[in-house]
Design brief:
The protein contains one helix and ten strands. With 199 residues, the chain is mainly beta. Strands 1, 2, 3 and 4 form a four-stranded antiparallel β-sheet that branches. The chain has a four-stranded antiparallel β-sheet with strand order 5-6-10-8, with no helix packed on it. The termini are far apart.
């Protein structure tokens, strides 16, 4: 984001703040080669009684304005509002609302089996957020009746039968305390191909 007088906090002064928008210096106030136009605090970075909350501070109010810097007079001048301003506000909303961003993958090894052979599949949940951890995340899967569950890399939370309409198998799920931003939580299930009749 470019401005005539960009308000920002120099990189050495972030403290516990997480930079959401960084801009090049030097700045009119404070100096520094780079800095943060917007900082966020979360995850206990705030002092009690606000330690459970989140805070975002923007140091460049003109980035959100639609008025023009004089001179010249309208219509020759341009709006101060950056084309990225609305995207930045959406990201702030995502942070403050606690939205979770993740992907789930499932892979088999080997990809084909004969009856009586053993195999395994791995389910991974990846936290694609760069800001928020995912707490108490559960991975669940229904093991079809043609497969026999043998073991898994972590103890399943439950092995109770899935009573949902149309389900043909046993529902298992595994719970992870937390998945950090950019990290993955995986479980590998070992099974035996019991028969050829899969739903």
């Amino acid at each position: 984001m470019v401005g005539l007088y960009v308000g920002a906090i120099p990189a050495g002064d972030y403290g516990s703040g997480l930079p959401l928008i960084t801009v090049p210096g030097p700045f009119t106030y404070g100096g520094g080669a780079t800095g943060a136009e917007m900082l966020a605090w979360e995850g206990g970075a705030l002092n009690a009684p606000y330690s459970a909350g989140k805070l975002v501070a923007s140091f460049e109010t003109n980035a959100w304005a639609t008025a023009c810097f004089p001179p010249p007079a309208p219509p020759a001048c341009t709006e101060d509002q950056s084309v990225f301003a609305n995207e930045a506000l959406q990201n702030v909303y995502t942070l403050l609302s606690g939205c979770l961003r993740y992907t789930v993958t499932k892979t088999f090894n080997p990809t084909s089996l004969s009856v009586g052979q053993t195999g395994q599949f791995t389910i991974c949940a990846t936290n694609t957020s760069t800001l928020n951890s995912i707490s108490n995340y559960s991975i669940s899967d229904t093991i079809a009746t043609c497969l026999t569950y043998n073991s898994s890399t972590s103890t399943p939370t439950s092995g109770n039968g899935n009573q949902s309409a149309g389900a043909a198998g046993t529902l298992y799920w595994w719970t992870f305390a937390s998945i950090a931003p950019g990290a993955s939580a995986c479980v590998t299930v070992n099974f035996t191909a019991a028969n050829t009749t899969c739903p």
